[in-house]
Specification:
Strand order of the largest sheet: 9-8-7-10-11
Distance between the termini: 10 Å
Strand content: 5-15%
Number of strands: 11
Order of helices and strands: HEHEEEHEHHEHEHEHEHEHHEHH
Helix content: 40-55%
Bound molecules: phosphoric acid mono(formamide)ester
CATH superfamily of the largest domain: Aspartate/ornithine carbamoyltransferase
CATH architecture of the largest domain: 3-Layer(aba) Sandwich
Largest sheet: 5 strands, parallel
Structural class: alpha/beta
Number of helices: 13
């Protein structure tokens, strides 16, 4: 039997995404239930988290389920992912056993595994979560790898709450400066969900080096075509912000510089002016601002923007709780 996972929203039709968002709105109105009664969820964190851990753990609890949180390599054994590996290094057990054993204990396996960030050709294979999906006999949920599909749903829900119908609303995904190069997961995800919802999307970034991976650009163009929206790339801040309904900020490292971050640093440093500030927001169509959080204030966005009524980042963060309940309940019920 084929197992339905939640690894990328590209595996889900527009109708399925809309249904998850409707279910999430139901959970927001009525937060408690028994949809996960007697069920358990493993939350595996290879990287730090505040929102994801809290919202998944409490989400399972609110629906009568139980979550077990594990940090492989810290409070659980380090895991080997290479097939055929002679395991004489630091790893203590293979994903083939980890995923199969967890599948005997729990009803869902949720994984956060950021890319290693040295070689994009390797990172883009998303091997960790794919290995969980390969060996698990229960559904696997992506809690952020090279995309962040739960964040996508929470973002979509927040935009719908404030704007209603999103069709052909002008959406700007803007790169922002950060002192460290960050992964492209949320940027990839923002592109996927905004195009899937039929928005007119502009990817604003300093230079062509910051355009996202061709796979996600291609999905974006395909989604836009299928859903009556559009996608374009701009390096012109004023042109991109003018008339925008939504500004979504994220910092990410330039793909051609993976593993050569010292060479990328001067480019990033030269583009600190991509910060989201009041002057830029004044160009928008009374636009909303959001970010996945965590956010460095006065680096990515100013205090004035973060504290303004336009900022819906806290709503988006709250919505993680509701959308993840919808995803968990849907996968459990689908089994
Ligand atoms: N946005 C998000 O995933 O937050 P955390 O990294 O705190 O989980």
């Amino acid at each position: 039997m084929t197992i339905r996972h939640f690894i990328t929203t590209q595996d889900y039709s527009r109708a399925e995404i809309d249904a998850l968002l409707l279910q999430a709105a139901e959970f927001k109105r009525s937060p408690r239930g028994q949809q996960l009664a007697g069920k358990s969820v493993a939350l595996l964190f290879f990287n730090p988290s505040m929102r994801t851990r809290t919202s998944f753990e409490l989400g399972a609890f609110h629906l009568g389920g139980h979550a077990v949180v594990l940090a492989p390599g810290k409070d659980a054994w380090p895991i080997e992912f290479e097939v055929g590996s002679v395991m004489d290094g630091d790893t203590e057990e293979h994903i083939a056993e980890v995923a199969r054993v967890l599948s005997r204990y729990v009803d869902l396996i949720c994984v956060r595994a950021f890319p290693k960030f040295q070689d994009w050709a390797v990172d883009r294979e998303d091997k960790v979560i794919k290995a969980f999906a390969q060996y698990a006999t229960v559904p696997v949920i992506n809690m952020e790898t090279i995309t962040h599909p739960c964040q996508e749903l929470a973002h979509a829900m927040a935009m719908k709450e404030h704007l209603g119908d999103l069709q052909n609303r002008k959406y700007v995904l803007t790169w922002t400066y950060h002192p460290k190069p960050l992964n492209t997961a949320v940027a990839n995800s923002a592109l996927l969900i905004a195009t899937k919802l039929g928005m007119d999307v502009t990817l604003l970034c300093p230079t062509p080096d910051y355009v996202l991976d061709e796979r996600y650009m291609a999905f974006g163009y395909q989604n836009a075509k299928e859903n009556g929206g559009s996608l374009k790339v701009s390096h012109d801040i004023r042109e991109a912000y003018t008339g925008a309904d939504v500004i979504y900020a994220k910092s990410w490292g330039a793909l051609p510089y993976f593993g050569r971050w010292e060479q990328e640093k001067p480019i990033r440093e030269a583009n600190k002016h991509f910060i989201v500030d009041e002057e830029k927001m004044a160009l928008t169509n009374n636009g909303l601002f959001s970010h996945c959080l965590p956010l460095r204030r006065n680096i990515k966005a100013t205090d004035a923007v973060m504290d303004s009524p336009a900022c819906i980042a806290i709503d988006e963060a709250e919505n993680r709780l509701h959308v993840q309940k919808a995803v968990m309940a849907s996968l459990i019920n689908g089994r």
